[in-house]
Amino acid sequence: MNLSPARPFGPVGIIDIGSNSVRFVAYGGSPRVPSALFNEKIMAALGKGIAETGALDQASIEATIGALGRFRLLAKEIGLKKLHTVATAAVRDASNGADFLKRVTALGLKPRLLSGTEEAELSGLGVLSAIPRANGVVADLGGGSLELIGVARGAAGEGISLPLGVLRMGPQPTASGLRDTIEAALGGSRLAGAARSQGLYLVGGSFRALAQLDLRLANHPLPIVHEHRFTSARLEELRAVLRETPLDELKKRTGVSAGRLPTLTAAAALFDALIATLGPRKVIVSAFGLREGLLYRDLDEATRREDPLLASALDVGERLGRFGDHGAALDQWIAPLFPSDAPADLRLRLAACLLADIAWNAHPDFRAERAVDMALHGNWVGIDSHGRAVLGRALCTVFGGDGFSGRIADLLRPGENERAGAWGRAIRLAQRLSGGTETLLRKSRIELTSKRVTLTISPRFQSIYAIAVERRLRQLATAMGREPAVKFG
Q1: N or C: at which end does the chain have fewer Cβ atoms within 10 angstroms?
Q2: Number of H helices, E strands in the chain
């Protein structure tokens, strides 16, 4: 992957007027994977009365208009370069939707009403921005609608929008009834078979809340929703828990917001219907959706092709490092030590190198702890919980830690503890040798043979070799089952 230098970006904002929630997010950071500088929502439930009355609920309208006035003032003070305001299914389908948009315009905003197919397209692009190799069907569940769209080879196909939002399905929909509706809508289209033996990618607050419930009930060691994989067996258990557990108890046990809990039964039934209808091989949750798809659509093709994990790591590494980014140079320097690393390993190793300076300004006793925390809990995409554990294991060693114990270590596969630890020791040696600078690093190279780890330094710069460097070389060689050696030439 080509790593682009930092480019000016943002802040840009999105106001998303959904059927259940209304949200304002201001983004900054990397263009490829923007970071949320500010994020606020209200559960306005604009679409809660549409199934009965055909109109937006009046109390919800007033709550939304109040929130939008606040969001507009915040956007002005934050100094946004651009502000998108979009409205989706509830406003699109309501008899009073046009009148509502006039009130939004009167606030000084420029709302754009998305069609169902555009809403589906943006959801698909949002998933691709976070999971570039996504292949199958994206299902975006909102308050007023369900969008389905095929994704493959980095592109989104044609999508559809169905009136199956959590506010429209009712509190106790049946999976069989929902399945009939979905099958009738798909007919003989290509979308009907797009997920078969491929992936189903779940987007939307209710699906994410269902994933959060699953992670908490399973006592997962790293309960991060993005790229969480559901299983059919777990779905039946979740539905039983939702039937039998009072909502206030569920909130205490899982941390799922009170506003989302009432929608979970409907979300679980729809999930069941989607699995039965589409026949996916795997089901994965995406933290990115429509809003991120809106930003991703505006990118040039070269930026779209950037790896989202590495783009984020480059951005964070540049901002937190001491002497500018040299992560790619670090990775090239240590590469001769790890000739058998697979492509997935190469990617995580480069991410570790890009983040190799992120904890330098913490207290020395807690640098490893801080680096691990950022690896495990950072707002990354393009990585699952297993990848986070590998990245954390490498950075733990970079900053002098001894490795993992307990349940996080259980996320590592056989041999990964040793390999990621060796990455960390190699990075640690490189940083000590060069003082964290790229110029001095390039005055040396390192090699691996069956018996030795050999550090070679240009004769003109042999003074950079010192006791502290010799110690780290010895530690690295020992960890790799070799003898240390140094040459000047």
Answers
A1: C
A2: 20, 14
